[in-house]
Structure prediction request, 296 residues.
Amino acid sequence: MNDSPITPPPVVLSTWSHGLPANRAGLAVLRGSGPHRSALDAVEAGCNVVELDCPDMTVGLGSRPDRDGRVTLDAAVMQGDGRAGCVAFVQGVAHPISLARLVMERTPHVLLVGEGAEQFARECGINVAAPKLSPAAEQQWRAWLAERKYAPKINIENHDTISMLALDAQGSMAAGSTTSGLAYKMHGRVGDSPIIGAGIFVDAPIGGAICTGLGETVLRTLGALLAVEAMRAGATPQEACEHAIERIIAKNPNPENYQVGMLTLDFSGHTGAYAVQKGFNYALQEELLEARSRFH
Ligand code: SD4
Prediction:
């Protein structure tokens, strides 16, 4: 028995409150007149909004840097037919989600990283800017350098990736995620967001799952894949989220010290949301909702 109401397609579901402007952009794409635009177009358009303007400084070039003062970005897209594209550890690219899409559409590969991804961006005509911190990021990084203490805070500063799921009226589903990862991470660190099966996963005709939070915990468990496979085995989207979060907690000690939020969507428009800690909000269509959580 499914325990969540059905949202009739087109459906857009996104992490955190910046999911609201992302969803508005995604819904405008899917509801617009003119040539058919897909779930993937909606995910890209929504993520692009947050990449350009992320007040939390966790997505796009205005983000907080790694400990060496570099903003390095990760992103991925996936469609229900299994096609996927990802970029990791890229610098100077304003829209990593669009670059990830180009990896899917124009290369025989799934994941490009670092300089190679930047070279590919230039080949596609995308500007790769010289490294430069925003004034706010520079100020915060310099303050952080005084102590050099690496301690991600739950729901604050390190946990505001935008991950999105969309289902269009033609029945195709896509997922995407774009992030600067964890502030003050080691240079070269890559999280779950650009890894298929970890940060995002979609499989037609089952459904999709997306994650946010402390990426190492999700990488160890392939969290998004766990949720989709639970749906394949008969779980509702809500049960699937809860199952995956329980597995993440079982495999990663001290859950009081980390947050992971997960969202799921099936092809009928049922959704699921669950988190390790309270405080994980998400946007379904144009509404901001609070996920249930394992710990309160
Ligand atoms: C990461 N999962 O790089 C990302 C960070 C994140 O909300 O989701 N923040 O680990």
